[in-house]
Structures are given as structure tokens and as C-alpha cells.
Hints:
It is built from 3 helices and 6 strands. The chain has 157 residues and is α+β, with helices and mostly antiparallel strands. The relative contact order is 0.18.
Amino acid sequence: MGMSDNCKHGACDFSLDEAEHELEGFFCLEASFKGNIECSAQACEKLMDSISMSPAAGDWFEISLLLQEAVNNAVLHGCSNCTDHEVKVTVCSNGSTVEVHVKHNGAAWDWQSEDWDLPDPDSVCGRGLFIIDSYAHEKKISDDGRSMVLIRRLGSD
Length: 157
């Protein structure tokens, strides 16, 4: 989907809040950023840097894929890669699971009609939903597609 002509372009202002608790293995990270690829890439990198130093680091690769694909879907399909919209991400762990919450204020997404199967090997896009389905042990998507929760059990395949 192309960038809207009326999108504002500018600095990638985003916030990242970290909360650690007395319970070992528990952490919660929150980020808010403009709904374009440049800003989402910066925010995802910061989130994954924090996760790499947490007890969830053993699942870093899988969490990274889930986070990036969910954010890409929000930015490209919901926000149309436009900084007029905002994406909010929360990544929390209780030591045994990680939950990735992605929410945006862009367009609704009819996720029920999407194909969650692996696309043709020659396809240059369309692998995100397959990746999410492969690495998330549970997924919850709002009816309007603006909110997605992905749950991964730590230390599992």
C-alpha cells in the first residue's frame, strides 16, 4: 500500500517505557510511535535491545519475528505507512510467556478474510501472517483488526 499524499513526514518521535518488577522474569515494555516504517523500525530495534537483556532473551529471534510482523501489518495495512497515525506496542513477560500487544488508530483490517497459509515461494510479500501463525502459541485480534495480541510460551518450539 502506498503512502498517502496527505501524510506528514518528520522526525520519528517515540517513547519507550520499561517497567521491571520484583518478580524474577517479569518485565513490561511500552512504545508509541508514528505509523510509518522508519519510526516502527527504530521502535522495534529499541524494544528488542531491551528484550535481549531480559530473561526472555532465549526466545529473542521468535519474539523479534512476532513483534516485527505484527508492527509491519499495523503500519502498512492499518496506518498506510503514514505518520498521521500512531502505533502502540506493549511487550510483557511473566517469566513463562511473552505477550506482544500491537494497536493502531488507522484503518480497520478485515483479518478474517486473509490467507494465513504460506504464500508462493516467488512472492515478495505476504509471509507475515504465516510467520505470526507459526511462532505465536495464541493470537487474539480485535474484530476491526486494529488490535492484535500474540502470546508465546518461553522455551518452546
